[in-house]
Amino acid sequence: MEIKKLGLLILFLIFGILKSNAQLSDLHYLPPLKQGSNNSSVKEQAIYMSTPESTAFTVNAYRGTSTIPIASFSISNATPARYDLPNGDNGITMVQNNDTGIVITTGGLRFESTGGQRFYVNYRGSSGAQSTSLTSKGRQAMGTNFKWGGAPNYATTSDISTSLGIMATENNTTVDIFGYNPGCEFRLQNDRDGILDDAIQVVLNAGESFVLEAYTTETAANVDGWLGASITSDKNIVISNGGLNYGVVPTSSSSRDAGIDQPVPEDNLGKDYVFIRGGGQDSTEFPIIIATQNNTQIFVNGNTTPMATINEGDYFIVPGTNYSSASPGANMYVRTSKDAYAYQNLAGSTGVQTVGLNFVAPLNCLIPDKVDNIPDITDAAGTTLNGGITIIASATTPDANIVVTDGSGAVTKPAALTISGNTDWKTFYIPNLTGNVDVQSTGPIAVGFFGANGNRGIAGYFSGFDVAPNVDLQITGTQCLPGSNLEVVGEVFDAYQWFYEGNPISGATSDTYNPTVAGDYYVRVTKGPCTYDSNTLAAYYCNPDIQLIKTADQTMINEGENITFTITVQNFGVDPATNLVVTDALPTGLSLLSASPSTGSWTSPNWNVGTLNSGQLETITITAVAVFNSLPNQIRHLANIALNTQNQVDSNLSLDRPSVAIIVNNDFDNDGIIDVVDLDDDNDGILDCTESNGTITNGTFGWYLNTPSGTLAMDNTSNPELNSWFLSSTSNLSYSGITASTPFSAVQIDNMPSTSLEEALYNNDYIEVSFTTADNLSNPILHNINWGWYQPSGGDSYTMSAFLSADGFISSILTKEDLVITNNATTYQVFDLMDQTFIPLLPDTTYTLRVYVYNQIDDDGENYSFFDDINFTISSCRGMDSDSDNVIDSYELDSDNDGCSDSNEAYNNINADGGDDMVYGSGVPSVNANGTVVAAAYPTPADMDTNGTPEFQEAGNVPTITVAPANSHTFVNTNDTFSSTDDGDTYQWQVSTDGGTTFTDISDGPEYSGTTTNTLTIITPEVDKNGYQYRVLIASDTFVCGNTVSSPATLTVGPRTIITNRRITFRVNKN
């Protein structure tokens, strides 16, 4: 869409005064459409013509470019006419394959009265299982800027397609179709994917038509990639669009019916819409909003918070749960901040196969007070329907003044339903009508009709686009900013209110306005009981200005999870920006998965946009995955920053927001439980806080400005441990961009220049505090940020938003947006400044909170506002680093670095870790939802020497032998001993009877004593023990993971005997 803009010549936005050319018109066009296959959506077809005129007149029907009527009809209020068409793909209203995707001269119809009399034209079609209706919008349908409308086509059965028909009203009309998903594939005659171009241009003469078909099952992009595409022309055209067949419930194979309608051009739209529910369920009853301008906010049922914000060409489905009830006739009010298309998907019954489509008219108090008449409401080209009407009426019109008659006479109406969020209108739902239906009122009404028969459902509006006010805007001055004025010229109105980006501008209530900021403006004027909005006027800077905004679909993700970034770039300068390149290098910790630009090309890390025209907005979505890491911290702070370059020098007049702060949750032990909630981060069977030295639960610290009064230092802590080991330092409270002082225990803000968050961000109007966490913290978590005040003595209301940064505001996380602080506090009030459930923190990191303040309202007779008492609530354990390796014990499996696992030492069991990977138990442990090991008992860790330090946090060693057992000689039946001098605590002696090849444990008994002491006694050995070897295994009570084995000592055993031969005497075993 080309929004009229400042920058060339003096431009005018003109609405014809009290235009009366809409559904009731002297001229009607019906462009042809395309169904999935012949007779699948419509077979029997008829066109119904009616009029409020009592005197009969002639209506001529012309086919395509023909100047000779194909049929003529005489109609009056009492004698409506019906024009029966050939069945199915008749080449007139429904084209065949060969006429699709090319310019045709014989398709489409034009109806014109010979004397300028006004009449209605309503197309109805039926087949064996489908029905549909389309009401011509008359001259009001003629224009040069449209969006392709309808509903996403999720149906998966055969003969499913979406169609667009275009018909020219003048010769040499150039039509451009663009802005659809490049993946869309359109039919070219018999080839369903014969048109693959990213943009389409055709030239049509008066009466010629061009029909596009997106056959749904051809490609996934054909489901909704066409929805919101732009159709522009240099001369007036008329379009029709819809699904033939289409379905809106992806999970149901039977979800299909026909739904088509004719929209009006973008300059005949509005912002306020009321929808009246049909007979369907929530899945088939919903509005579809299509934006014609960027940053269109969608508000539902008077809610002041937008349900969604969409850009030009985007669509949003408002869930059916927002209707006032689940009953037929329930209503819903939708307001958009900028003009938008509004379609309604509804159903004739609860069956998903009875859907229909309405193009809905915006609310307008100048619409007619009667619809006379809707002909033969129960007939759809020969199919009998159960028909009815919906009425949107002015709330000031008495119900008794709204009179409905049908073929049976006067109709008894039900009670009107009020509309949530809009007290100016009310609605009626009147089923079971017959014959010609007439609605008369003393106030404005919009009337639609509906019908159902088995699987068939139809719907359509007969009024609502009938008139629009005359609001002329003239631009004077330099034609770009600064130096331009917007003026309402011509007609004088009772009241004026200027809007910027959909929001009222404070004090801008005259017929002129001097804009200073680029963006979209319109004026709302009031005359008598009616209020009207002008179209939007886009104002741009004289100097080049490229705005770059980056967002993410989430700010906290886990390892292995995907995150999607969206970068939007918009040109707010009056001239094109050329050779524009956006660079987005992902930080370490994220890995690129994909990138999808709306224009240009992507070669990581560069998005080559090319030329960006004035006002043009383009986007790219980048999907990345958080890579796994083994860093011993519960989170990683990542900043993803984009930047732009172009041939022109960016004046940066518009606020850029190029960075996104991301918290990546670590899962150190890879057990599927992120460290933030994992009570045992390393699965060693010891709780993290047990491996620490101190715990703070819900501790608070803050800047109360009390001690002494007016101090800017942090002056309140709930726990002395906050200062002793959680906080390394804190800053003084400071402020920027505002005029403030501390005359007592609060900040008195005397001047708050910004009126919006965007302006406050640009001007750096904030109050700031910082704190730095100490090192060696275990699982530090920020639970809440709150702000409190007590102000019974006055002070102006204002608004605040809060951001938290861990990198000096290279990037930041929004914690609270648009918190309104009112001046009516009579008691101490506490306001949350953090919407997140929690925010994990890092040790040894400086966190800065900026509270941006803006929109000061002089509502108390004072010239100041107050800011007071900012408070943080945290929890943390004081981490220990037993081996001084800069890794806290909760992330180490051997905290004291003595070679013995924490599991074994804490449980004083050499087998606690299973002997494989130091985590508790054998293999990969099963864990609970809180990250604790299922098989672990989590006892108080062993402290065998009772010195107050668990053994897993003080290094142990195997015992040291200073004197090892020595070889010994003894006589038979004479005790002998072996001893060890060492620093051990426990002993186990062993014996080898095979010369030291194998050793086995021995125990006290007839042969030995002292087997578990440092001295072993061999009791009265026999000669069979001669040559035995003995050794001792020595262990320490404070080191469970090993022992010291002495060298073996040999026992020699002999008898007390003298042996004499002839010459020599031997004395054996003497002594």
From TrEMBL:
Coiled coil location: none
InterPro entries tied to this protein: Chlamydia_OmcB, DUF11_rpt, IgGFc-bd_N, OmcB-like_DUF11
Superkingdom of origin: Bacteria
Limits of the IgGFc-binding protein N-terminal domain: 136-451
Start and end residues of each DUF11 domain: 545-660
Pfam families for this protein: DUF11 (PF01345), IgGFc_binding (PF17517)
UniProt protein name: DUF11 domain-containing protein
